[in-house]
Every structure is written in C-alpha cells, then in structure tokens.
Amino acid sequence: MDQHHKEVQERWGDTNEYRQSKERTSRYSPADFELAKVDQEAATEAFAYAYGNSLPITSSEAQAAVIAHRDAISKWFYDCSVEMQKNLALMYVSDERFKKYYDDRLRGLAQYVHDAITAQPN
C-alpha cells in the first residue's frame, strides 16, 4: 500500500464515505477514472473562471462551481453532503498538497474555493 492510500485509510477508513468510495472505485476501469477526472477538472475550471473574473463567492457562477464540485464527488466516489463538502473545503486550505493543487492553477484559488463552498447554505 503506498503512502497516499495508507494515509487515506488511516484518516477516513472508518467512515461510510470511505467504504462507499472504495466499493464504487473497485469496479472502475482506467477509463472510468479518466472520466471522473474530467468532471473534477470541469468543477475546478469553473472555480478558476469565477475567481479569475473577480466574481463574488456568492455569485451564481461560483455557486454553480460549488454544486459541480459536490456533484462530481457524489457521482464518482461517495454521496457528498454540504457538510462533508465544507469539511473538504477546510482541507483545501489547511493541507499543503490540496492547496498547491488549486494555487498552482491560480494563486489564491484554494482560498476562493474554500470560501465559495463555505458560503453555500446548509
């Protein structure tokens, strides 16, 4: 087991979301994983568009990106509630690996993604 998988199992191995994700992804082909990546990238690009155009985190475009982000996770991995998505948003600014993913695309994007996700109503 590589370090990433070990860390994921240690952090979330006892959650329903982890079990659901593991069950779903166990059936995926490499093509399925590529399709999942397309959906995730589309959500990230929607965030980048909103941020790059200085749109407020509550704008319809930013909130559409929030929904696309949650929908991609729910479609491919596990049923992602608003509460779970807000927990993920915290990780996007507190874990340097996730922060880098967003900020390498556009400096400050991780904070924007966090803030847009956090701004959505429960």
Radius of gyration computed on alpha carbons: 14 Å
Helix count, per DSSP?
A: 7
Q: Report the helical percentage.
A: over 70%
Please write the string of helix (H) and strand (E) elements.
HHHHHHH
The named CATH superfamily: Antibiotic binding domain of TipA-like multidrug resistance regulators
CATH fold-level topology: Globin-like
Counting DSSP E segments of at least 2 residues, the number of strands comes to 0
Q: Beta-strand level of the residues, as a percent range? A: under 5%
What is the average of the pLDDT values? 91
Beginning-to-end CA distance, first to last residue: 36 Å
Shape: globular
CATH architecture: Orthogonal Bundle
Determine and state the CATH class: Mainly Alpha
The figure for the number of domains is 1
Low-confidence runs = none
Overall SS class = mainly alpha
Biggest sheet: strands, sense, closure?
none
Characteristics:
mainly alpha; 7 helices; 77% helix; globular; 122 residues; 0% strand; Globin-like
What does the secondary structure layout of this molecule look like, with pairings?
Elements: H1 3-12, H2 16-25, H3 30-52, H4 60-76, H5 82-94, H6 96-105, H7 109-119
